[in-house]
C-alpha cells in the first residue's frame, strides 16, 4: 500500500509539474464587429496599464499592413537602465484571414540584447484582444504575452491612445461598464 501511495505521489507531482500556468484569462468580451484594418494601423501608445509589473513602461506600437498580414514594431525603454529597445512582430496570417472575434496573434523578434535573449531570435508571442475602441483616440485591450521556452503566459489590461498624452478620459465610460475604473490603471509617461 505504501508503494502505491509513493507511486501515486510521484505521478501526481510529475503531471502537475508539467501543467502550464495560464494567467491570460481575459474576462471581458472582445469588441463585436472589430474593424481590424482600422484599428491595427498607425501609431498607438500604451499610456495606462492595470496591475502592471514594476518593469512596465510606455510602449509606442506602430502597425503597418502588408499583403502578408500586419507588421508591428514597438519601442520603449528598459526601466532599470533607460536603454531603448525595439521589437518587431508579425501577425499569424493575412488581415483577411484574422478572426476579429478572437485575440489577434503576433510572433515577435527582439532588436536589443539582454542577458536572457540574443538579438534576432523569435522570443515571444503576443495576443491582442480589443475590448473597445473608437479607432481614432483610444483602445481598451487585453494583451497576452508568452515568452519562448516558457510555459507561463502573462496577461494585462491596457489603454492605448493615438497621442502620447492620452489621459484615459475618453475610455472612462467603457471602463466603468466593464467593472473597472481609470484610477485602477497606472499612468505611464511616454
From TrEMBL:
BP-aspect Gene Ontology terms: symbiont-mediated perturbation of host defenses
Protein localization: Secreted
Domain of life: Eukaryota
Record's keyword annotation contains Membrane: no
Keywords: Hemostasis impairing toxin, Secreted, Signal, Toxin
Pfam families tied to this protein: Triabin (PF03973)
Record Gene3D superfamilies: 2.40.128.20
Family: Belongs to the calycin superfamily. Triabin family.
The protein's name: Salivary lipocalin
Species of provenance: Triatoma brasiliensis
Taxonomic lineage of the native organism: Eukaryota, Metazoa, Ecdysozoa, Arthropoda, Hexapoda
